[in-house]
Amino acid sequence: MHVHSVNVAHPRPNPWDEVSTTGIDKRAVVGPVAVTAPDPRAPGAVGLAGDQVFDVAHHGGTDQAVYAYAREDLDVWERRLGRELPGGVFGENLTTRGIDLAGALIGERWRIGLDVVLEVSCPRIPCGTFQGWLERAGWIKEFTQAALPGAYLRVIEGGEVAAGDPIEVVHRPGHRVSVALTFRALTLEPDLLPLLLVADALPRKDRDLVRRRTGT
Predict the structure, then answer these.
(1) Among residues of the chain, what percentage have pLDDT more than 90?
(2) Residue 208, Cβ neighbours under 10 Å: how many?
(3) What integer is the mean pLDDT of 33-37?
(4) Separation of CA 5 from chain center
(5) Angle, nearest 10°, between helix axes 179-186 and 204-214?
(6) DSSP-based three-state secondary structure for 85
(7) pTM for the whole thing?
(8) Using 50, 70 and 90 to split pLDDT, how confident is the model at 40?
């Protein structure tokens, strides 16, 4: 398991949303990139040096400091879409190899390289900017049905990350709430929502959403 590429934003105009600029266009960088925990008082702060988000109401912050997507899942989409998908094209900071992101557990921790420790917090929920960026009608529905959302991560220990760094799973919680299960529960299968509450590392906003929808 390793990092295939590290990707940071190239800001561009956003004609697909009321926020006029987007950082969804992320491209691979050469060499190490500093990783730090975002300041929780700074809306939209992110974990990688040089990265940016602009829709601060829905992106960035402690629970979405880093976004990872598997190269293997990009390969699945390449075959489905019939087009090349370079690392970073889904807006991910880390394109990974060898790790099952859909099967990763909420609260699972990874050591990357020598120093960085990240914690899986929640899946990515697709938005209109993502659909517009890929220029594919019906993309939100297609992406949601596939349930290959990638994972947002918190920064537990900072340091530097670079392409080729090994990824080691150093902690797995004692529940079975995976990224894919969480995504399905929050989107197309609300009957699964009660299962999520055993995952203590689920972001507070998602836990509150589960309680509102289930009346618990």
Answers:
(1) 91
(2) 10
(3) 97
(4) 14
(5) 50
(6) coil
(7) 0.94
(8) confident
